[in-house]
Write a structure and sequence with these properties.
The chain has 7 helices and no strands. With about 180 residues, it is mainly α. It has one domain. The termini are far apart.
């Protein structure tokens, strides 16, 4: 029974992470653009110009708003990179990897959300005919496999990773405001 609960938790954690993917990616892009604009307004130059000048002048930017924002953006990038790399690993190494990738991409990773019927149309372009129920079955399989790649077979660290991902999302949203 414990193993079943762990698999259910693993699946739900992975689905939650995937559901937040577009939102985090968007918030990261907006926060990055805002940080660049703020830096340009404050310094009159680019990030590279600022960093070169700071290093040349021996400035210490630790414990500043700029450092905190940069660290938050970097953590979000790393988390998105972890998801991207895990999905790519699934795509390249599982016998049905390309198929699962296509489903995960259109459900969660593509820049714009599309309807289930549009996802079915995209999958059918590869010659695989599906109905809603079958698509959901394969989506659930793909989420389970991705969860095993992301978290391993044990679910010990998933809560802390999800908490960190959520903190990065909330920090990005606060920075947008």
């Amino acid at each position: 029974m414990k193993e079943l609960k762990d698999k259910e938790t693993l699946w739900h954690d992975t689905q939650l992470l995937l559901r937040k993917y577009r939102q985090v990616k968007w918030a990261l892009e907006v926060s990055s653009q805002q940080a660049l604009k703020e830096l340009q307004q404050r310094t009159g130059g680019t990030l590279d110009t600022f960093l070169h000048a700071a290093v040349f002048a021996g400035a210490d930017i630790s414990n500043t708003h700029l450092e905190g924002r940069a660290q938050s953006l970097e953590r979000s990038r790393k988390m998105l990179g972890l998801i991207d790399n895990s999905v790519e690993f699934l795509k390249q190494n599982h016998p049905r990897g390309e198929f699962y990738y296509l489903i995960l991409y259109h459900y969660y990773l593509s820049p714009k959300e599309i309807s289930t019927s549009d996802i079915i149309d995209e999958v059918e372009k590869t010659g695989i005919l599906l109905c809603d129920k079958t698509l959901r079955k394969y989506r659930n399989e793909a989420i389970g496999l991705l969860g095993e790649i992301l978290w391993g077979y044990e679910d010990r660290e998933s809560d802390s990773i999800l908490d960190e991902f959520d903190r990065c999302l909330q920090a990005s949203i606060r920075n947008e405001e």
